[in-house]
Amino acid sequence: MRLPRLFAVVWLLTFSAASAEEPVFQPLFDGQTLTGWTQRGGQAKYSVEDGAIVGRSVPNTPNSFLCTERDYGNFELLLEFQVDPALNSGVQIRSEHFDEPQTITVPDNGGEKTLTIPARRVHGYQVEIDPSERAWTGGIYDESRRGWLNDLKNNEPARQAFRQNEWNTLRIVAKGDSIRTWLNDVPAADLTDGLTAKGFIALQVHGVGDRAEPLTVRWRNLRIRELDTDVP
Length: 232
Hints:
By secondary structure, the chain is mostly beta strands. It has 2 helices and 17 strands.
């Protein structure tokens, strides 16, 4: 009678250890509403359809951002997206928005330079969604600050990983001054930059000028786990 009990104890310990090692992610989006999000910037239309957040462009408005209502510093973010081939988009991380203009000092070719961020301008790191022939999806752009920080011009495997007119998966890991991205499990950007340690996450619909026909981008299965910087 002791043998089955021994097997049960071994199984329980093994299952508990495996469960403890599995990362625990929390949803950023409930699949039904935009609770926990707020829009900033332009007037693009955001809605929920079939379990996804849908962003639709509108003419004559600047870049629009649907932003989380809380900030995140060190985290792993997973999401899926599908984008119109004619629409540029992106995912902001560690981003900020202030009611008054801000003057900041940033690194510049081994030195420093001063930038002024206009009031109510969303700014910060953006993981690019780029369905154009350039194919820099997964690269890191510094929105409204320094421009490109880590493009994909020398990363052909990542450029080839993008799937036009299909759902794609982004993985983003931000920890300390390291930001890394993967597109459909292919390593994309690997950036070391410590300008901003914490901020909101946002979903961008890029401005389209006077183009009247709506272009769409969709995001789903957004989930995040916050990381302890003391753990490798």
